[in-house]
Design a protein that fits this description.
2 domains; acyltransferase activity; AcTrfase_WecD
Length: about 230
């Protein structure tokens, strides 16, 4: 495959464009589409693409079109066994939103929404909005929080139910002062219990390949890597 024969489509990212105030689009490789031409890319200030790591021909074609590597991603799948909800897990309510926004904005300050493609504060602002939406039941369906014996926030996990009968973790974060206390594992157990209550068959979660603590957590909790992918921008 060469750059002039990369089949696919380029579609504007409407929500992201309004949120970040930029003109961006997502390139999706699709063998049933016509080859992507230069003109369809030039009309956007930024074009994103996510490609499975084994799609080497497509990666070469994107590189020839001027795309640059941004980050790698690993997608895990966990089984839904027997068990129950761990202690200290609550459903996040509207009154928790300010604290959750603050946690998310610092926990996800570094992501693929980074310079030179985005402003320095954009990543934290994006994930703060994500967790607020999860509490309100938009995009993700629910947000669970972990608290200590005094009721103080230790971390959160957002979840959504997928059409194929599985669940997906959207965000998972632990407060710095709660790290090393097993909060991450408690939130994974709570996420599995959430899936179990809805009779979902498995739980998916993705993280950056550079996020070693998250990779270790998901592996320790029984997660198996289902796929790896690369994000590229032009």
């Amino acid at each position: 495959m060469n750059a002039t024969a990369l089949p696919g489509r380029v579609e504007p990212l409407t929500w992201e464009n309004a949120f970040f105030a930029i003109n961006s689009a997502l390139l999706t490789v699709d063998l049933h589409e016509a080859p992507i031409d230069e003109a369809s890319l030039r009309q956007y200030d930024l074009v994103q693409a996510k490609i499975l790591s084994q799609q080497t021909a497509e990666l070469d074609a994107l590189s020839a079109l001027g795309f640059r590597f941004v980050e790698g991603e690993a997608d895990f799948v966990l089984g839904i066994g027997v068990g129950g909800r761990p202690e200290g897990i609550r459903i996040a309510r509207k009154e928790h939103i300010p604290a959750l926004r603050e946690v998310a904005s610092s926990a996800f300050a570094f992501s693929r929404f980074r310079a030179p493609w985005y402003k320095a504060e954009d990543s934290g602002r994006f994930y703060a909005q994500w967790v607020e939406n999860a509490v309100l039941g938009t995009f993700d369906h629910q947000c669970l929080i972990a608290v200590n014996d005094q009721g103080e926030l230790q971390g959160f996990v957002s979840l959504r139910e997928l059409a194929d009968g599985s669940g997906r973790i959207g965000l998972l974060a632990t407060l710095p002062e709660a790290q090393g206390l097993g909060v991450g594992q408690r939130m994974i157990e709570a996420a599995i219990d959430w899936c179990r209550a809805r009779r979902l068959t498995r739980l998916h979660v993705a993280t950056q390949l550079g996020n070693l603590p998250a990779l270790r957590l998901y592996h320790r909790c029984g997660g198996v890597i289902e796929r790896t992918a690369w994000w590229l921008y032009r």
